[in-house]
User: Which sequence fits this backbone?
């Protein structure tokens, strides 16, 4: 059966409607914006939760659109049959009535200030070109030279810092109406500038841009800004008494970013897969915005699109590469023992308590672990379970991982980062001890490295297998062979020298459920090497001497045993 195409990656409202994509009707968001009547609305939500599409929807609803000749474009047809059309004249009277400036700042994600500023400047210039029909109005004659200098990239930086305000003033003269300003992804250039080291320059430009456009602009009807974080201490919004902040803590607008239970159920029914609803719920549900429990819309659409191709497709962590992983990785780089224990607890499904505050700044994110936890909460890694105010009036939240998708990110991506951190350290002492049959030092080194990574109570043998395969790779003159077929079973690891004149090593792992059982588990590992005849492959490959290590794990403790019997393999 034919279905409407799913809008994977489509964030333009006009394209969504005219090309017949399937979408969830969020047009009552327009009604709420009109009802609340805030001068400047800041919406902070995680990446890929529909911010850009909502901004595009606002533009097409409110804008008195014109082509390059100044002829009116009627976009009312885009909303036919949608919920906003049922709200009555009080709201529909605003349709197509305002000049609109719509900009995204995500192009400011560049490796240096010169390039970032150039790309942001072109975003501004794009809006000047889109509205250049206004220059035909004689009332704008005295502004024409300044307008054209900006449009032709001949103006100085000061002119571009004031360019949104100037454009809104020109639009007000042309339309005789105040202007709606939409600024999407406002914090992308700030986060990026912090990573690449030109933060002060970028914050100065963005501050000037916003103060002129949003704080001292008499031509402003209202503005909507979106991003991941509220950045108040940066002085971007200082003194802006007309700013209304709507974060994931806000109860207003809570259902307009992300999908609700009912909406995901409808998607499953519309695509004749109601039996898949529980899978969607387990993997992509669990975010709490205000009082609304919502699903990750990006992942829901991606998974349904995959299911339409193959109904038995397994869910994936689609969101893993779209979020702000650079700052999350910093959590790993600075994690202390307490932090690692908290990450392990979260992966096990437990909760942690953290003080939460909204006025975090990119310049302060790395100053404390609490700031990093705050960043991760507001960017979608955790769900609020409970909240309280402590004796010092701090807002304390109980947090947990919201769903299997984010848990997968923690289990795999975050754990991989920890393991990479371990691999970056000097492992020569471990390598030497293993070759020299110093089981005690091998044990000490492995245990020390385990303290640097994360594990969890449901850790299984493959976790330790992957961990050891990683830290033992890079031994000069040796190769690590993993899960090779040998004898009557599969050994865990072979450490084999390039030269067959040197000794080779078989490593077998066991996991003990209690610390008291470590020695018994190590003995069983050695016994299994003998019983399964794991050395046969090495014998057949020409290695004359093979040593056996049995390694037992329990959490972050390990015990290493070496089979003292040296096995000489005959070489014919």
Assistant:
């Amino acid at each position: 059966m034919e279905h409407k195409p799913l809008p994977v990656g489509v964030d333009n409202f006009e394209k969504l409607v005219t090309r017949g994509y399937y979408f969830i009707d969020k047009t009552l968001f327009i009604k709420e914006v009109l009802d609340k009547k805030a001068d400047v609305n800041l919406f902070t939500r995680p990446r890929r939760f529909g911010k850009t599409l909502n901004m595009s929807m606002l533009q097409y609803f409110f804008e008195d659109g014109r082509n390059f000749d100044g002829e009116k474009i009627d976009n009312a047809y885009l909303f036919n049959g949608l919920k906003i059309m049922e709200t009555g004249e009080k709201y529909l009277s605003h349709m197509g009535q305002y000049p609109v400036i719509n900009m995204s700042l995500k192009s400011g994600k560049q490796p240096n200030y010169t390039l970032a500023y150039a790309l942001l400047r072109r975003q501004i210039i794009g809006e000047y070109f889109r509205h250049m029909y206004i220059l035909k109005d004689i009332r704008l004659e005295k502004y024409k030279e300044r307008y054209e200098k900006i449009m032709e990239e001949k103006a100085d930086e000061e002119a571009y810092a004031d360019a949104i305000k100037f454009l809104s003033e020109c639009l007000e003269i042309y339309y005789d109406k105040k202007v709606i300003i939409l600024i999407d992804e406002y914090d992308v250039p700030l986060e990026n500038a912090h990573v690449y080291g030109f933060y002060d320059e970028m914050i100065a430009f963005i501050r000037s841009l916003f103060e002129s456009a949003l704080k001292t602009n008499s031509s402003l009807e209202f503005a909507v800004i979106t991003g991941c974080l509220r950045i108040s201490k940066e002085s971007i919004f200082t003194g802006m008494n007309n700013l209304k902040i709507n974060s994931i803590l806000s109860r207003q607008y809570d259902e307009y970013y992300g999908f609700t239970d009912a909406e995901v159920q409808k998607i499953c029914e519309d695509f004749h897969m109601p039996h898949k609803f529980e899978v969607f719920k387990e993997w992509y549900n669990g975010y709490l915005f205000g009082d609304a429990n919502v699903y990750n819309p990006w992942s829901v659409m991606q998974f349904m699109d995959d299911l339409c191709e193959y109904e038995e497709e397994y869910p994936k962590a689609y969101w893993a590469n779209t979020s702000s992983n650079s700052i999350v990785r910093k959590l790993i780089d600075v994690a202390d023992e307490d932090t690692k224990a908290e990450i392990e607890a979260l992966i096990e499904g437990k909760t942690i308590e953290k003080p939460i505050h909204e006025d975090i700044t990119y310049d302060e994110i790395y100053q404390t672990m609490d700031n990093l936890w705050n960043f991760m909460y507001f960017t979608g890694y955790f769900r609020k379970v409970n909240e309280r105010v402590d004796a010092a009036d701090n807002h304390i939240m109980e947090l947990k991982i919201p769903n299997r998708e984010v848990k997968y990110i923690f289990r795999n991506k975050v754990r991989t980062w920890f393991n990479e951190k371990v691999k970056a350290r000097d492992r020569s002492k471990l390598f030497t001890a293993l070759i020299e049959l110093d089981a005690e030092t091998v044990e000490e080194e492995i245990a020390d490295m385990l303290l640097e990574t994360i594990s969890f109570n449901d850790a299984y043998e493959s976790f330790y297998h992957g961990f050891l395969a990683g830290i033992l790779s890079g031994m000069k003159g040796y190769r690590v062979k993993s899960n090779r077929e040998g004898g009557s079973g599969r050994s865990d690891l072979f450490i084999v020298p390039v030269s067959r004149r040197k000794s080779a090593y078989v490593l077998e792992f066991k996991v003990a459920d209690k610390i008291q059982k470590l020695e018994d588990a190590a003995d069983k590992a050695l016994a299994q090497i003998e019983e399964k005849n794991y050395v046969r492959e090495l014998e057949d490959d020409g290695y004359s001497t093979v040593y056996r290590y049995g390694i037992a794990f329990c959490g972050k403790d390990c015990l290493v045993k070496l089979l003292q019997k040296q096995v000489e393999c005959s070489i014919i």
